[in-house]
Specification:
- The complex is a heterodimer of chains A (256) and B (449).
- With 256 residues, chain A is of the alpha+beta class.
- Chain A is 16% helix and 48% strand.
- Chain A has a 13-stranded antiparallel β-sheet.
- In chain A, a hairpin with a 2-residue loop joins strand 11 and strand 12.
- Chain B has 449 residues and is mainly β.
- Chain B contains 6 helices and 23 strands.
- Chain B has an 18-stranded antiparallel barrel. A 3-stranded mixed β-sheet of chain B has the order 10-14-13, with no helix packed on it. Chain B has a two-stranded antiparallel sheet with strand order 1-9.
- Classes of the chains: A alpha+beta (256), B mainly beta (449).
């Protein structure tokens, strides 16, 4: 009898492991869906206030992936109050991101702690963590496949991710990943008390260089009733980006 | 507000540089080669830059109401005022070069120092991994946020204690800077300043230092000091800085040979008589060797600086030269609870050969062997950073003098509305306490374009 119970226990543990592994695989497939060494974008951020008024930010983003290391530079172009601000993130698998920011008013490059990642990214509904979440290391979270569900008629897996780091700004993230494309169509973000704080939704997808690419993404802050919508006006895959873009020199000068 | 400085010849040179930039720079520019180009010109088809000159005109407008409540309560309206201010910048960038001219316009500049209209004028040439810059510029050395002991290239404007940002306090000076990239995270920087300018202090208005007021009373002159002409090549300064990264640590090493921006005063009666009744000012040459680091540990974003200021008073008993000193700065910021951020900084100086100071005429006679300042800033942002509340405290540890600054800012579109005030208190012998029981409240509206 004891032997039977042991086998059942092992089997149930194995099933749970396989289930969890499956959820992680789905997320990994989603994050690694677009194979490109580099991505260059110019985007407009439309920041909508509670009263419906809209302000605009224009920013360029350059991303390079080499040997598992992801490097991203964000350059703010407009408006004048943020123009010239540059932000560099270097993500190494299994490690906390290295982040630096250059603020023209400061005149120098400043390292940013990961703990500052929960703050608003340049007055938008995105946090610093949100900006880099699309490339978030899969190993930083644990996953569970909650259910299958149609989202706007699209069959999706609904997957819950919980960060291993208790200091991370969210306690859990629930994502809708389309089965046919592996695109993460929607993400609900819950704070440490388990309250839904933000919802990210993909509103438009286009084929760019043979890759299905989200070109309109909306992040809503639920309680504040504000939102930020990102329109990707230009996106180029595999366009050579000089390695010197991902350096302190570029942050300081805007020149590779 | 009148100030004491030696700026006219420097401004004349800067004007010449600015004219050069306008004449040679803008006419020869074409847009930079990397990136999407200027926002107005980039399109999905032409994504690598327009190839046309990229000229950007920007600036800011602000309007402030400045009130000194304690003086107003006594019926003194002399320093409380309305302060319209404008800045204008003209920038042009090409594939290998960019140029910037910045103008600053306010009542004080127009009335007292029109040469300061030209706030900045610089030209940068990009030669592969090498960047050559020249002009009337500000540079930033060290890692500390504001209480820095290594950020020594530019003198400071101490004539207006309502200036908050470190960059606003820095006075742009002529310099030539060569930066060579040494890989992903390493670079070496060479700086040459053809001459020298000291810190600017007020000789009238609410921010006159108590020692200056005493000197004014002693000499009977509004400007009681006699300073040598430092806009000469024999007052040249130079430095070298190496920045690099090691794992998760940013590191810097620097050497500078120049002048302390704080003057020494010759209080010998014979010297004062020889200078026509004014107190002779002596600028002290020194070497500085400094190290700095920035690292994130357990959520604390830590910055450290340490340096040795080696003056020529190697015996410690020259009354006209500051003693050598060890300087340090340390700080961190940390996200606390409920969205509250804490930034703590401290900086200090430990005088060497302190026991050798014997003459009552020594510039450091009677002062503490250490000088320490500690600053703490608590801030909380709301509504996607649209509203920000801050409370800054600054303490002089030895004299127990202090400054407190509460403030609130509101972003409305691209405009900012701010209400801030400062109160100075504590020991009147301290740098902060000398303005004991005084303070101001400032309401300002600003817009950048």
């Amino acid at each position: 009898m004891k032997k039977l119970l042991f086998i059942l226990a092992v089997l149930s543990l194995s099933a749970a492991t396989v289930f969890a592994q499956s959820a992680e695989d789905i997320v990994r497939a989603s994050r690694e869906r677009i194979k490109a060494d580099t991505v260059s974008t110019r985007s407009r951020m439309m920041i909508t206030a509670k009263d419906g008024s809209v302000t605009e930010r224009l920013l360029d983003q350059y991303t390079s992936k080499v040997s598992g290391t992801t490097k991203t530079v964000v350059v703010f172009q407009k408006p004048a109050s943020v123009a010239g601000t540059r932000f560099l993130t270097i993500s190494n698998p299994g490690k906390i991101d290295d982040r630096w920011i250059f603020l023209p008013s400061l005149g120098k490059v400043r390292r940013i702690a990961a703990g500052e990642g929960s703050g608003s990214f340049m007055g938008t509904d995105m946090s610093y963590d949100d900006i880099s979440s699309m490339d978030r290391d899969v190993s930083l979270d644990t996953y569970a496949l909650l259910k299958d569900e149609n989202l706007d008629g699209r069959p999706c897996w609904v997957i819950e991710a919980k960060p291993k780091d208790p200091g991370y700004q969210y306690s859990r993230m629930v994502g809708w990943i389309e089965k046919s494309t592996s695109i993460s169509l929607k993400m609900e973000l819950y704070d440490k008390k388990g309250v839904l704080v933000k919802v990210m939704e993909i509103q438009d997808i286009k084929d760019v260089q043979g890759k299905l690419t989200p070109v309109v993404t909306k992040m809503s802050t639920v309680q504040a009733k504000t939102s930020t919508t990102i329109y990707v006006d230009i996106i180029i895959y595999n366009d050579p980006i000089p390695a010197s873009v991902f350096t302190e020199r570029f942050l300081l000068t805007g020149r590779p | 507000m009148k100030t004491y400085n030696k700026r006219a010849p420097i401004a004349a040179l800067a004007c010449a540089i600015a004219a050069g930039i306008l004449f040679f720079g803008v006419s020869g520019l074409s847009a930079q080669e990397f990136g999407f180009g200027a926002p107005e010109t980039a399109t999905a088809i032409d994504a690598s830059g327009s190839g046309k000159p990229a000229v950007v005109v920007g600036g800011s407008l602000s309007f402030s109401l400045l009130g000194f409540p304690f003086a107003l309560a006594d019926g003194d309206f002399s320093d409380s005022t309305a302060l319209p201010e404008a800045s204008l910048s003209l920038g042009a960038s090409g594939s290998k070069v960019d140029a910037t001219i910045g103008l600053r316009l306010n009542k004080d500049i127009l009335e007292n120092r029109p040469v300061a209209l030209l706030d900045e004028a610089k030209l940068r040439v990009f030669l592969g991994g090498t960047t050559l810059e020249g002009g009337l510029m500000r540079a930033a050395w060290g890692r500390a946020d504001s209480l820095s002991v290594l950020d020594i290239i530019n003198p400071r404007d101490l004539s207006d204690l309502t200036l908050r940002d470190e960059n606003d306090r820095k006075i742009a000076v002529p310099m030539l800077r060569l930066t060579e990239s040494l890989g992903e995270r390493a670079s070496v920087e060479l700086v040459y300043l053809p001459w020298f300018e000291g810190d600017r202090i007020a000789i009238s208005g609410p921010w006159v230092p108590s020692k200056l007021a005493a000197a004014q009373a002693m000499t009977g002159q509004a400007n009681p000091f006699s300073s040598p002409d430092t806009a000469r090549l024999d007052y040249g300064q130079a430095g070298l800085r190496l920045a690099t990264g090691l794992g998760g640590i940013d590191l810097g090493l620097q050497y500078f040979y120049g002048y302390l921006t704080t003057p020494a005063y010759d209080m010998n009666p014979a010297s004062i008589a020889a200078a026509g009744g004014k107190i002779p000012v002596i600028w002290n040459r020194y070497h500085q060797l400094g190290l700095d680091a920035a690292v994130v540990l357990a959520g604390f974003n830590i910055r450290l600086e340490a340096g040795a200021n080696l003056t020529e008073d190697t015996a410690g008993n020259d009354p006209l030269v500051y003693n050598p000193a060890i300087v340090w700065a340390a700080g961190f910021d940390k996200a606390l609870f409920a969205g509250i951020d804490l930034n703590v900084q401290a900086m200090g100086k430990l005088r060497l050969l302190h026991d050798k100071i014997a003459s009552p005429l020594d510039v450091e006679y009677g002062s503490n062997v250490t000088t320490t300042q500690i600053a703490a800033l608590l801030s909380r942002s709301f509504a996607r950073d649209a509203v920000k509340i801050e409370l800054l405290g600054l303490l002089g540890a030895e004299k127990l003098d202090y400054m407190i600054e509460p403030g609130v800012t509101l972003a409305v579109g691209d405009a900012e509305i701010a209400l801030r005030g400062r109160y100075f208190g504590g020991n009147v012998e301290g740098d902060l306490g000398q303005f004991h029981d005084s303070g101001y409240v400032r309401f300002s509206v600003s817009y950048k374009f």
